[in-house]
Amino acid sequence: MTQQIVTAAILAIGDELLSGRTKDKNIGHLADMLLLAGIDLKEVRIVADEEDAIVEALNALRTKYDYVFTSGGIGPTHDDITADAVSKAFGVACHHDEKAMALLGDMYKRREMEFTEARQRMARMPVGATHIPNPVSTAPGFVIGNVYVMAGVPQVFQAMVDAVIPTLRTGTPVLSLAISCPYGEGDIGTPLAAIQKAHPETSIGSYPRYVGQKFSTEIVVRGRSQAVIDAAGADVAAMIEGIRRERDILENHSAEA
To answer: What is the Cα–Cα distance from 158 to 162, expressed in whole angstroms?
Structure first.
């Protein structure tokens, strides 16, 4: 069966993320959604509210991956410069989008609030961009090329992601098999590396745990075919059994001595 591989990157934008003032919630949410859609998240970057840094990162990512998703920097304040940076990266003008101006103007009119110059900034986007709907607070995100520009506020970001995911080209879903191993990574590191080498179509991760003054590991085998996962899983199970037998032999010899 032909496997379709679709790749993505996330570019999170904001000084507040780098300072630690704001704890990011968007990367994990989008990573989960992409996994379910069969899209491989390959890279995540966080950059400051600096136009050149955003442009540099965006141009690097959008030429390397099928999709790039950004979060943050499309609000009404002076440091919300993502629209300008994306426009610069694509070499087009940044303007007040007519449709976005109408959406926001109508919303503020209904709320009997002034549609100020600052609020009009949320209607700015690159020429040629199309909207990502925002059912939470109206101000749209936008799409240009393979770049999806979304808000940083988690509730709004998640609503935008819900609108975007069904429009994407998806790949063959990644399957996984979790195996509980009673031994620590120091015990399994070398044989597990050999198993990974023997099963290159899988990705094998080990996740250490420490419970009751004892180390153990959860081993997760990932792949796009159940057959290759099962084959690697069988070797992992055999590895665990082999370690157990070796330890039993050593313990028996020690007892006899």
So the answer is: 6
Q: Which of 243, 238, 248, 201 is nearest to 223 (CA)?
A: 201
Rounded to whole angstroms, how far apart are CA atoms 69 and 37? Answer: 15
> 46-60 b/e with 16+ CB inside 10 Å = b?
bbbbebeebbebbeb
pTM of the shown model = 0.85
Amino acid at 190: T
- What's the N-to-C CA distance of the chain in angstroms? 57
In this predicted structure, the answer to whether residue 256 has a pLDDT above a threshold of 70 is no
Strands 141-144 and 130-132: antiparallel
- How far apart CA 143 and CA 101 sit, in angstroms, is 17
95 φψ region: left (φ > 0), alpha (ψ -120 to 50), beta (else): beta
Give the integer Cα–Cα distance in Å for 235 and 238.
Answer: 5
pLDDT tier at 120, thresholds 50, 70, 90: very high
Runs of H (alpha helix) within the chain? 15-19, 26-37, 51-62, 82-90, 98-110, 117-120, 154-164, 185-198, 226-256
Residue 184 CA to residue 165 CA, distance in Å, equals: 38
d(CA 204, CA 201): 10
Q: Which tens digit of pLDDT belongs to each residue from 144-183?
A: 999 999 999 999 999 999 999 999 999 888 899 999 999 9
